[in-house]
Specification:
6-stranded mixed sheet
């Protein structure tokens, strides 16, 4: 039986909730389903909070299915292992509450849709993650065929994505918007422990007709290094790395950053030898940590309260928050630059296209597209770090071996790809392929921001006009060597 009974009370802000169909609740359903695809954590999660609220209201069991698909172009042992390490941690976390947790791995691309459909026919309603990039696991394209209500919940950043009605062209414009509108959202936090005093019925197993066909993955065995993941149709040539995934590892990384790196973040984050960066981007990308948790920890460290915010929205990088300079510099990266990428991907379907660049950038790059290149490398030459530049090669080796590149050198890495390819469109394609294949934060709205910043997105024309670059900002390994000690970095990835 379908009903349109609304949820009478929820702490999740309405602006973060989006209904994807016009079907009502199934009052005869066996459970509330949270189909977890992007916010892979058992805490600080608005989507989980919403599912918990529905389960409390209906007094039905809560089923959390965390799915990992194999149909992505860049699905690999590296990305799978990192995600599954998070799933193993989630299994331990969810076991502490009255929740049935089902970790699910696709073994054939597309089979998750059949699993989802079977679950939906037994559920009261479905809550899922509202992420701005397309995914094979996103149930919204299937919403028209669903027999029950489907809600998406935005837990991506401090500013709800629906708060902005357009894509912003520059960080300055977006920062001014944030400073004018963020105040009203700063006290809206997801729950650090959504299971505290939670009393709902506990489902011990899925219905037999479902459980017999879609068994939970044996995650504990799969995360062992000796397991090759050989039965999965993924790229096993991109091997797993030392960096460990999961909410426990993410929390430890946050603690290390706040204690040891934050004091020098503003001055030294551009120096590869100092390694003052936060190291949080893989955890943010895989949903193992929330920007709300990061912001709360930073605010407590600063003994900060909202009354320290500046009254005027100046759009400046520092001064609005009323925090220390290192903290303000970090918040500009965490909130302004990160959420600028989410804003763009939310409103622009062409976020990964050369044609999404500002008109001035397209014009100048086209003008210089046929300029003579001193060096031109193929994709294989870039991938194997076989260029003439030791610093670029070291950055590429860091990417392939560690799954990351130092933040400043990632910008240089992209600028040199632009300089050493036959044209800017090819450069964009190579950057996307290498980044999404090897980077643990690849395929993220924020990483698309970085790739297309190389080509002029969010930037302005810079003089003098140069060959190949035109008026797009230029960077060189020589200048990088003046700003940082690169010898140790090159030696580390020789």
């Amino acid at each position: 039986m379908s009903t349109n009974s609304p949820l009478p009370a929820s702490d999740v802000p309405k602006i973060r909730i989006r209904s994807c169909n016009s079907v009502g609740l199934n009052a005869d359903g066996r459970f509330v389903l949270y189909w977890m695809t992007a916010f892979r954590r058992a805490n600080w999660n608005f989507a989980l909070d919403r599912a918990v609220d529905w389960a409390k209201h209906l007094q039905k069991p809560l089923v959390v299915v965390e799915s990992l698909g194999c149909g992505s172009r860049w699905a690999s042992a590296r990305h799978h292992r990192f995600a599954m390490q998070g799933m193993a941690e989630n299994a331990r976390q969810f076991a502490q509450g009255p929740v049935y947790y089902h970790p699910y791995l696709e073994t054939i691309a597309g089979e998750a849709r059949d699993f989802f459909a079977a679950l939906a026919h037994s559920a009261c309603l479905v809550v899922t993650d509202d992420y701005p990039l397309p995914s094979d696991l996103d149930p919204e394209p299937w919403a028209a065929d669903l027999p029950i209500q489907l809600e998406k919940v935005d837990g991506n950043g401090i500013l709800p994505m629906n708060a902005a009605e357009k894509a912003f062209e520059t960080a300055y414009a977006f920062r001014r918007f944030l400073q004018s509108h963020l105040r009203e959202h700063l006290l809206d936090f997801p729950k650090a422990n959504p299971f505290s005093r939670l009393k709902i019925p506990l489902l011990k197993r899925l219905p037999t007709e479902i459980a017999s066909r879609w068994k939970p993955a044996k995650i504990a065995a799969l995360v062992e290094k000796k397991c090759t993941l050989g039965y999965l149709p993924i790229d096993r040539s991109v091997e797993s790395v030392e960096l460990h995934g999961g909410i426990k590892a993410a929390s430890a990384a946050l603690t290390r950053f706040l204690r040891h790196r934050l004091p020098i973040y503003r001055e030294k984050r551009g120096d590869a030898a100092k390694d003052a960066s936060s190291g949080l981007s893989p955890y943010l990308h895989f949903g193992h940590i929330s920007s709300h948790e990061i912001f709360r920890a930073l605010a407590r460290r600063e003994a900060w309260t909202p009354d320290r915010l500046a009254e005027k929205a100046s759009g400046r990088r520092e001064g609005w928050w009323g925090m220390s300079q290192p903290s303000e510099a970090f918040l500009d990266e965490l909130i302004t630059w990160r959420e600028l990428g989410y804003n763009f991907c939310r409103h622009r379907y062409d976020y990964a296209s050369f044609d999404s660049l500002p008109d001035w950038a397209i014009k100048t790059l086209k003008k210089h597209a046929k300029d003579m290149r001193k060096y031109v490398y193929s994709f294989d030459g870039f991938e194997s770090a076989a260029t003439h530049d030791p610093l670029w090669n070291a950055a590429q080796r860091q990417l392939t071996r560690a799954g990351t590149i130092h933040n400043y050198l990632r910008m240089l890495w992209g600028k040199k790809i632009l300089e050493w390819t036959a044209g800017p469109r090819e450069a964009a394609e190579i950057m996307i392929e290498l980044n999404n294949k090897y980077a643990l934060d690849g395929g993220d709205p924020n990483s698309y921001s970085g790739i297309f910043w190389v080509l002029g997105r969010y930037d302005r024309p810079w003089g003098p006009e140069r060959p190949i670059f035109g008026t797009v900002r230029y960077m060189s390994s020589t200048n990088a060597a003046r700003k940082m000690r690169v010898a140790e970095y090159i030696e580390s990835y020789s």
